[in-house]
Specification:
Elements: H1 34-62, H2 73-108, H3 116-124, H4 126-136, H5 158-188, H6 201-232, H7 246-257, H8 259-280, H9 287-300, H10 316-328, H11 330-344, H12 353-376, H13 378-384, H14 388-418, H15 424-451, H16 465-495, E1 547-550, E2 553-556
Antiparallel strand pairs: 1-2
Helix pairs in contact: 1-2, 1-3, 1-16, 2-4, 2-5, 2-8, 2-14, 3-5, 4-5, 5-6, 6-7, 6-8, 6-9, 8-11, 8-12, 8-14, 9-11, 11-12, 12-14, 12-15, 14-15, 15-16
GO cellular component, one term: plasma membrane
Domain Cytochrome oxidase subunit I profile: 24-529
Family: Belongs to the heme-copper respiratory oxidase family.
C-alpha cells in the first residue's frame, strides 16, 4: 500500500470533547446513529449469550450422569434446540452486526451508514425475534431435537415450531437488511482517498459476509416458509407420507447453515487482523492474500453444504465433489492463519487482554479447522456422523473462534466505544478461565465421539460417564469465567480510566477521532497518509514506538 495524501492525526494526549458523551437513555430508544445501534446490538447479543450459556449449563448438568436426573429427555431436546438457535441467531450474528455497525463508518471515514433508518429497523427486529424464540420453548416444546428436521417436526410441537419459524424469519430479515447496508456503505461511502486496497481488513471481511448473507439467507427463509405450510396448511413439500421429500429440506437448510458458519466467523477474521497487527506493532503479513481469501471463502462456502449429508443417500460422485470442495476451503482459511502467525513472528507483542484472546482464537480455530478437514473425508465422516466428535469440532470453531473473537474485539475497541479503559488484570483472569473451561469442556468430546457416543441425547451408556463429568466441570468453569468480564465491563464503563483518542497508537481511521467519537464521527472528513497497517515505518513521530498504552499509562512492549 502506498501513501496517498495527508491525514490529520490525533495524539494519545488529545482530550475528550465536552458534551460528546451520550446519555444512557439514548441507548433504549430508536436511534439512527450507527454507534448507538452498534452498542445496542452488542448489549442485546450479550444478553442472549447469557441465556444460551445458561441453557448449555443445564444440559451439561444433565449429561454429568447417564440417567435423566435434571430434565426429561423431551425437555432436553427442547433445550438443545433453544440453546443452538439462541447462540447462533441471537448471539454470534448480532454481535458481528454490532461490531460492523459501530466500526465500518469510522473505518472508512463516513459519518454514518448508507441507510440509517433501515439500520435502526434491522436492530429493532432482533428483540421481538429473540423473545419469540425463547417463548417458543414454553408452547409445546418440540420433541425431535432440532425443530427444523422433518418429518419428525411435522408431528410434534407444532405451536412451538411455528413460533420458532416466525422468530427465525424475522431475524433473517434483520440479517438481510444489515447485509445490504454494510455492502452499500463500504462500496459507496469511503473517503475519496481510500481505495479498496487501502481499506482495513475488517471491511473486506464484511463484504464477504454480506455477500453470503444476501445469497444464502433467502434460501433458509424459503425452506422455513415451505415447512410452515406443511405444518399448518396440510401441504407435503417435505412430508414423505404425502409424496414430499425431507432430503430436499436438508439441502435447503444446509445451503444456508454451512455458509452461516462463515457468516459467524468472517467478521471476527477481520477483527483479528486489526488486533494482531496493532498489538504486535508490525504490518499485517500478506494484506492482499488475507483480503482476497475472504472473498474466496465466501464463494467456496456456497458449494460445500452437502458434506453434512454424506449419510443421507448422497450418490458417490456427489460425495466426492463436496469432499473436495470442503478440503479446498481450508486453503484460504489457512492463508489467513499463516498471515496472522507471520504477523506475530518477531513482533513487539504486548500481552493485552485483546491480544491474549486473539492468540486463543488462533489456537482454538486451528484445532477446529484440523478436525474439520478430518470430517471432510467421507469414510471418517460416516464413522463419526451424529457423534460428539462433530459437537467438539463445531464448538472449537464457533465457540473457540467466534466467542473468543467477540471478546477480543470488545477488549480492543472498548476504549473507542466508551471513552474508558478496561482493567487488564480482570481481562487476563477472564481469558485464563475461558480458555481452560473451553478446552476442558470440548476436548474430551473428541474421544467421546470416537468411542461412539451419539449427540442430541440425554441418556447414554455408563462407559461415557467420566469424560462427560470432565466436560460438565469445564462448562461450569466457562460459566464462572463470565463473571470477571461482566464486572470489568460494567465497572470500567462507569469508572475506568479515561481513554485517549488513540490508546493503542493504531493507524486505521476509527482511532483518528475522539473516544468516544463525536456525533458526526469526524470534525472534517479525513484523508489517508499511510496504509492501515504501516506500523514500524516511522509515521507516528510524536509517540514512542517502544511503548503501548494500557490502563491510561504507557508500559513497555515485550
Amino acid at each position: 500500500m502506498t501513501a496517498t495524501a495527508e491525514r490529520k492525526t490525533l495524539s494519545s494526549e488529545t482530550p475528550l470533547l465536552l458534551g460528546n458523551e451520550r446519555k444512557w437513555t439514548d441507548y433504549f430508544g430508536f436511534s439512527t446513529d450507527h454507534k448507538v445501534i452498534g452498542i445496542q446490538y452488542l448489549v442485546t447479543a450479550f444478553f442472549f449469550y447469557l441465556i444460551g450459556g445458561s441453557l448449555a449449563t443445564v444440559m451439561r448438568t444433565e449429561l454429568a450422569t447417564p440417567a435423566p436426573d435434571i430434565v426429561t429427555p423431551d425437555v432436553y431436546n427442547g433445550l438443545l434446540t433453544l440453546h443452538g438457535t439462541v447462540m447462533l441467531f441471537l448471539w454470534i450474528v448480532p454481535a458481528g452486526a454490532g461490531l460492523a455497525n459501530y466500526l465500518i463508518p469510522l473505518m472508512i471515514g463516513a459519518r454514518d451508514m448508507a441507510f440509517p433508518r433501515l439500520n435502526a429497523i434491522a436492530f429493532w427486529l432482533i428483540p421481538p425475534s429473540g423473545l419469540m424464540l425463547v417463548g417458543s420453548f414454553f408452547f409445546e416444546p418440540p420433541q425431535a431435537g432440532w425443530t427444523s428436521y422433518p418429518p419428525l417436526s411435522l408431528t410434534t410441537g407444532m405451536l412451538g415450531e411455528g413460533i420458532w419459524i416466525m422468530s427465525l424469519l424475522i431475524g433473517g430479515t434483520a440479517s438481510i437488511l444489515g447485509g445490504i447496508n454494510f455492502l452499500v456503505t463500504i462500496l459507496k461511502m469511503r473517503v475519496p482517498s481510500m481505495s479498496l486496497t487501502d481499506m482495513p481488513l475488517f471491511c473486506w471481511a464484511m463484504i464477504a459476509t454480506s455477500l453470503l448473507i444476501l445469497i444464502s439467507t433467502p434460501v433458509l427463509a424459503g425452506a422455513l416458509i415451505l415447512l410452515s405450510f406443511d405444518l399448518f396448511a396440510g401441504t407435503a413439500f417435505f412430508n414423505p407420507t404425502g409424496g414430499g421429500n425431507p432430503v430436499v429440506y436438508q439441502h435447503m437448510f444446509w445451503f444456508y447453515s454451512h455458509p452461516a458458519v462463515y457468516i459467524f466467523v468472517l467478521p471476527l477474521f477481520g477483527a483479528i487482523s486489526e488486533v494482531v497487527s496493532v498489538h504486535a506493532r508490525k504490518p499485517i503479513f500478506g494484506y492482499r492474500a488475507i483480503a482476497y481469501s475472504s472473498i474466496v471463502i465466501s464463494f467456496l462456502g456456497l458449494i460445500v453444504w452437502a458434506h453434512h449429508m454424506f449419510t443421507s443417500g448422497t450418490p458417490p460422485w456427489l460425495r466426492m465433489f463436496f469432499m473436495i470442495t470442503t478440503m479446498v476451503i481450508a486453503v484460504p482459511t489457512g492463508i489467513k492463519v499463516f498471515g496472522w502467525v507471520a504477523t506475530l513472528w518477531r513482533g513487539k507483542i504486548a500481552y493485552t487482554s485483546a491480544m491474549l484472546f486473539a492468540m486463543g482464537f488462533i489456537a482454538l480455530f486451528l484445532i477446529g479447522g484440523i478436525s474439520g478437514v478430518m470430517l471432510a473425508a467421507v469414510p471418517f465422516d460416516i464413522h463419526v456422523h451424529d457423534t460428539y466428535f462433530v459437537v467438539a469440532h463445531f464448538h472449537y470453531v464457533l465457540f473457540g473462534a467466534s466467542v473468543f473473537g467477540v471478546f477480543m474485539a470488545i477488549y480492543h475497541w472498548f476504549p473507542k466505544m466508551t471513552g474508558r479503559m478496561m482493567n487488564e488484570t480482570w481481562g487476563r483472569i477472564h481469558f485464563a478461565l475461558t480458555f481452560a473451561g473451553m478446552n476442558l469442556t470440548f476436548m474430551p468430546m473428541h474421544e467421546l465421539g470416537l468411542m461412539g457416543m451419539n449427540r442430541r441425547i440425554a441418556l447414554y451408556d455408563p462407559q461415557f460417564t467420566d469424560l462427560n463429568v470432565l466436560a460438565t466441570i469445564g462448562s461450569y468453569l466457562m460459566a464462572v469465567s463470565t463473571i470477571p468480564f461482566l464486572i470489568n465491563a460494567i465497572w470500567s464503563w462507569r469508572y475506568g480510566p479515561k481513554a485517549p483518542a488513540n490508546p493503542w497508537r493504531a493507524l486505521t481511521l476509527e482511532w483518528q477521532t475522539l473516544s468516544p467519537p463525536a456525533i458526526e464521527n469526524f470534525e472534517e472528513l479525513p484523508v489517508l497518509k499511510t496504509g492501515p497497517y504501516d506500523y514500524g515505518l516511522g509515521y507516528i513521530a510524536e509517540e514512542d514506538p517502544e511503548e503501548l498504552y494500557v490502563h491510561g499509562t504507557p508500559i513497555p512492549a515485550t
